[in-house]
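Bumping with the actual sequence this time:
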Amino acid sequence: MTRNTMERTAHELDHRIVGDDMQCVEITLDPGETVVAESGTLMMMDEGIAMQTIFGDGRGQQQGFLDKMLSAGKRVLTGESLFMTTYTNQSQVRRTAWFAAAYPGKIMPLDLRDYGQRLICQKDSFLCAAKGVSIGIAFQKKLGAGLFGGEGFIMQKLEGDGQVYIHAGGTTVQRDLAPGETLKVDTGCLVAMTQTVEYDIQFVGGIKNTLFGGEGLFFATLRGPGHVWIQSLPFSRLADNIIAAAPRAGGKGREEGSVLGGLGRLLDGDN
């Protein structure tokens, strides 16, 4: 990773990561500085910070209403809200704003200057960024990725020379891929990658693997060179497990009808 030594155009943020498995990030804003965040990620903020809901990605260089609508429309394609929120320190002293994700994991502060001023990430991993960073979309060019990529079909593209903060569920594993080196990843476990990594979708193969493997029908194949971030607990997997374990109508869990389930309900006093 080679950092560009040219003067930064995006706002320069100071931060502090707090917590272990349920992390939050404290962003310290100098007077006049702004952080751009996804809707619903704010935890708290000091007096003197002005919150504004905006179209698009908050770069500050957008020209006119049409450009703003185009930027907002791209966000809709990723499944995100039409709007983003900016937090600007309008006081004369330093102020803080705190942001957090909705599920357990790690928050990673990344300087885009270290990664060629562009990162590709999962649509639900972006948390917040310095004003001046462009938050767009990155369509996968290959047909296989488009039809079967699942969570990896449409990804977000972060561009600029500012600081970004992305969230990964569970434990985060990083890999440096050599030229031509290939890594197979569950589509939901891919958090982010540098722009040099080639991305495609590969069929798992085999009838038993397809029907009974429980790992989905497709892998994401990542080919180097480049750097990738992998998460152990995608939000979709967490949500599926919660839904599967939740009581059904009538208060019965998924173990309904089993001997173990009956004993459990008896011990709990349900019978």
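The tokens above came from a reply further down the thread. The first strand starts at residue 14 and ends at 18.
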